[in-house]
């Protein structure tokens, strides 16, 4: 039969069918003869027969019956059954190998693998799925997802054997099978996800096709399902054995880690333009207060489930952003991404805040300086770090004008949290240092100094009743940052003031320095009220030192106050409550009488008017949205006609309003008076008028 299969025929034989041969050769591949040698010979004969059928029929497009499911369901499992026998001895996980002639003849596993590669290499767009689906059935039937070494090996062979443009078909099939198995054991799901990771790793080097968002959407859906199973089983099995519950939770954690690893690996291999879209997509799924309906539904999971989902999604986002280098910071941190990332909803927990700061570091650090800044410490000479930086671009300056206050506010509020640990302070310090390196011009430097002084005031005044460790931690953070900043901007007087304060602290208050506070278990003071001023960084001293170097220091006298957002008003957090009154107090012209008058004006009518104004604001937002939507979707001719009509109406209206009269000058060197309606304008010199009978609109 093999000799017959190798004969090339000039004209195809349409009446010839190979159903009998497929069935017979597939049965031979499963031979279980008692004599091992005879069993091997029969299996080799069956595999060579299948290879002959494939070669005889697969190239003839008019007779493609071999790709029909009833044939593939026999051929593919027969080959996999023989390939499986070699896995314990030799794992073939790379591109196509080239075994010797002796191996081909003697080893059924090697022969089956080569036949499988040949079959997949001949598969086309229309019959790719028929060749892949029997693989899932075989792996399910023989329970080969846990452990999944053979499954991984199979799909590596598939991905390396098929044509590159069909890779996304295989990925779609794996995603579909993951959906089918969503209620299977955690280890089975983890095995399928690991296979997906290996397939994506190979496909990411070429064309992924239209499946990018589908991959992430499916993985995020299964992440939510896994958390649901973990918490649901924990609740339902409260009376059962503790061991089984703990084992189930650990298994679900394996699934979750596999999903995060796959998301991170896939995202980090995408080009930058696709990676930014995936970052936006994942951030849109994070459940935050006031988020859109696109976020994952965690209403039935409770607070614990929502927190778990937030941590998992942020960990995924952290892996996707790793190594991302945007030319302009606006590409890395667009407003629709930055707003939910810095949301107060993600500040409820210490671990969430750490993940948010690490994501910010990935996106802000474009010159790989973060490793040099690791750990919070007083750096004797910053120049030894060999910090890499470029001149601040116009786009970066514009970004800080628009969003700088959001970054400052996040650091400020992050320092006021009671559950901060050493890692939180280290990440906050790194955030300030990276902002200085990547985004700071003279104006931003002044804002950062104002922020640092405000953080010092948090520790001294202690309106939030923070523990003493947190207050000393904030003082240590400010000392480490101002030491770094003063050396970066290289103003001698500023450096001298900072060095003097640090030197005094090392002698009189070592708990205000990071090395002593975080590394040596030093004794903390009972209060900070009795400390002398020479232990603190003083605004007037800093202003004097910077003013002499040409900095505009007027704003240093205005205390920093974080912006109040709409989410703060809806949030249960108390950290913003007092800042509103502080903001009112520092406004110019606010005296006691004004405050009394303002209090008297708060009546029912005033409140009703305020509510009505909010309604009007919503109406205005809706109008703006409709206008934008119209310009995006309406036909160009319609927009042009409407604009022309409005322009003509405006032209006529202006002509009516102005009614210009021009009185000629008494002499060529005189002036001309222009009157428009009731307004009388300043006289205009004649030599500036280009036309004697000028008509001004």
From TrEMBL:
InterPro entries: ARM-type_fold (IPR016024), EFR3_Homologs (IPR051851). One of its GO terms (cellular component) is plasma membrane. Transmembrane segments: none annotated. GO terms for biological process: protein localization to plasma membrane. This is EFR3A protein. It comes from Anseranas semipalmata (Magpie goose). The gene is Efr3a.
